[in-house]
Design a protein that fits this description.
Layout: E1 2-8, H1 12-23, E2 28-31, H2 38-41, H3 53-56, H4 72-85, E3 90-91, E4 96-102, E5 105-110, E6 114-122, E7 129-130, E8 143-144, E9 157-161, H5 165-176, E10 180-184, H6 199-207, E11 212-214, E12 218-222, E13 226-230, E14 236-240, E15 243-246, E16 250-251, H7 254-259, E17 286-288, H8 303-306, H9 309-317
Parallel strand pairs: 1-2, 1-6, 2-3, 6-17, 8-15, 9-10, 9-15, 10-11
Antiparallel strand pairs: 4-5, 5-6, 7-16, 12-13, 13-14
Helix pairs in contact: 1-9
């Protein structure tokens, strides 16, 4: 199967790339290892976006929401309709296993087929690989790196690690469903990038004692029925615990990029090398789109400011 473009990743930016390729009459296929917009599908059930619906639109297709900030379910419906109404060529539940390049052609082997293409767009996001705590006990069944619904934690002692949007949302939802929440935060305050309408809520719950929070603290060990952590005075404390939500962020699949030959910054950012005008990497014909462009700085790119990548890339290919 020969294509002008193989797009790896069926999230919003991958769909945007497919729409742009279709407009230019280029042959393309979108390969997604999970469900359509797989990362969005695995977001928490009650998640509300920071962006407005207009800023989540791709290819100028209107996203109508009954809320000022759309919900996860509204976004899933929108991107599904975009994909189906435009008859995008998407292969779901198909994983890219190996990519080789010979002269000017890439050979892409997946779990289901083999493709040849002159160009590859990697739009795989960053939600698949969590940042781990690297402490004893992290492999216990009580430890989760993803959060979905608060009902599971009713009447349980839950430690939430982190102070970003995901951690704050989980802490508030679980508290309101009857869970006993303790937050362990490495910094000295709730994250500055937490949604502006949520940040006062979590700070008020902490101030009134409804949610216990330890700042400048760090987990040192997770036990079957307890958690040990170092507090701001460097003293080890232990608290009773049923579950741990380690919501400390996620990172792109750097190993995949390196296997493709993409150069990464040798500092902690691991920002991949690419041309900011065309999005082409140091590997000719290999492009990046979306949040993966930020390396470990995953907060810099999101749907609203990276949807333009699709047009930039396809214009360069044409």
């Amino acid at each position: 199967m020969n294509y002008d473009i193989v797009i790896v990743g069926g999230g919003p930016i991958g769909l945007a790339c497919g729409l742009e390729a279709k407009k230019r009459n280029l042959s393309y296929v979108i390969i997604e290892k999970g469900a359509l917009v797989n990362s969005l599908y695995h977001y928490p059930a009650n998640m509300t976006f920071f962006s407005s619906s207009e800023k989540l639109e791709i290819d100028g297709i209107p996203f109508i929401s009954k809320n000022a900030k759309p919900t996860k379910q509204e976004a899933l419906e929108y991107y599904r309709r975009v994909a189906t109404s435009n008859d995008l060529n998407i292969n779901l539940f198909e994983k890219v296993e190996k990519v080789n390049k010979s002269k000017n052609l890439f050979k892409v082997k997946t779990s289901k087929a083999t493709y040849q293409t002159k160009n590859i767009i990697v739009a795989t996001g960053f939600y698949d690989i969590p940042n781990t705590l690297n402490v004893p006990g992290e492999n216990l069944e009580k430890v989760f790196h993803y959060y979905n619904d608060p009902h599971y934690f009713v009447n349980q002692d839950v430690v939430v690690v982190g102070a970003s949007n995901s951690a704050v949302d989980a802490a508030l939802e679980i508290y309101r469903k009857g869970g006993r929440v303790t937050m362990i935060v490495r910094g000295n305050d709730i994250g500055e990038r937490v949604k502006y309408w949520v940040r006062p809520d979590i700070k008020n719950r902490i101030d009134e004692g409804s949610i216990k929070a330890y700042f400048n603290a760090e987990i040192t060990r997770i036990k079957k029925d307890a958690v040990e952590f170092k507090d701001e005075n460097d003293e080890i404390q232990q608290i009773k615990n049923d579950f741990v939500l380690a919501l400390t962020g996620y990172k792109p699949n750097f190993e995949f990029l390196e296997k493709l030959g993409v150069k990464l910054a040798d500092d902690q950012t691991k920002i991949p090398e690419y041309n900011k005008q065309t999005m082409e990497t140091n590997v000719k014909g290999l492009y990046l789109a979306g949040v993966i462009c930020g390396g470990m700085e995953t907060h810099k790119w999101f749907i609203e400011n990276s949807r333009i990548h699709a047009k930039m890339i396809v214009e360069d290919i044409c």
